[in-house]
Amino acid sequence: MALEDYKGVFTFAEQVDHKLAGVALELIGKGKELAGDLGCEVTAVLLGSGITDLADTLAEYGADHVIVVDDEKLKDYRTEPYAQALAGVINEYKPEIMLVGATAIGRDLGPTVSARVKTGLTADCTSLDIGQFPLNADPAEAKQNQLLMTRPAFGGNTIATIACPDHRPQMATVRPGVMIKQEPEKGKKADIIDFKPDLSENNRYVEILEVIKEAKKTADIMDAKILVSGGRGVGSPENFKLLDDLAEAIGGTVSCSRAVVDNGWKPKDLQVGQTGKTVRPNVYFAIGISGAIQHVAGMEESDIIIAINKDESAPIFDVADYGVVGDLNKIVPQLTEAIKAELAK
Ligand code: FAD
Fold first, then answer.
1. Whether this model's pTM surpasses 0.70
2. How far, in Å, is the centroid of ligand 1 from the Cα of 316?
């Protein structure tokens, strides 16, 4: 593998039903930063059927080039044709870096493609940088301009930085909500490349007989501006009524810790944290949540964190901007009433 043949930062522009995933735009934002450090450009790879017009949105969010594979075989996501298409793009255009969202689709597609193009992949990254590898080596002996991929390891108890110095592309999946998308530049255009890789049907092609969409029962906590999050300290599913009332008064959405999901009090969709969702609201209430590292990993980027906990030594107070020490059963109803009274003025 001639590493010097591989150039540019590529991002997978995931779309489903002609709607781009938020992480597709976030990856372009991060890709621009990495490309700035490497002195190269960002190319978004858009796969699907009847999707070419989405290239304009990708351009507005910062893509310099968009490679489009528009083929009937790519109408609904299936591992085999998508893997053939993305591997075909990589083999033809030889990117130095290939980023994929850590969504259900990306977690299937990314590793499949990395195996096919014979490189490594670091899954579920929380941070990406350009630097030398090994990190602490004498610069004269280290490899420069490597993608340094950081992710939680050993159950979230430590953070590992991983590089892929001997193979290309350097591949990573990145969790939705972790990177920041750029402000769109209306009317910005990208160079659009229509690519036709060989998509040959084989015995790994599955036939989709029917698509049954689950009706969405919960709000997407990743879109909420105010989150009222409850932990084991709330005590019972019924007692979440206190948080529902606060959320209603303040125009927020209820979310929770993993302990709450494990107890069966709330669905997994509402879980914040390393194995839940990464959120970045304007205001995050942490109520009866201790502040375990795996929870904090999913909410520490919130603009304002307000913690309510009866234990003054709870680690949540280390990341909170405002802290109230006391019994949530007394404090939350008073807070709700105070907010209602204030809003009624
Ligand atoms: P607890 O730690 O039990 O804390 C409850 C808190 O409520 C305590 O601080 C207590 O003082 C307070 N309290 C109790 N009663 C009251 C009251 N009346 N008034 C005020 N305060 C009160 N966790 C996540 O949240 N998200 C994840 O994505 C996640 N992923 C994980 C991944 C791995 C691999 C592992 C090993 C763990 C993960 N966890 C995750 C679990 C995490 O380690 C914690 O166990 C969990 O976050 C604890 O939830 P909690 O804070 O609600 O409960």
1. yes
2. 10
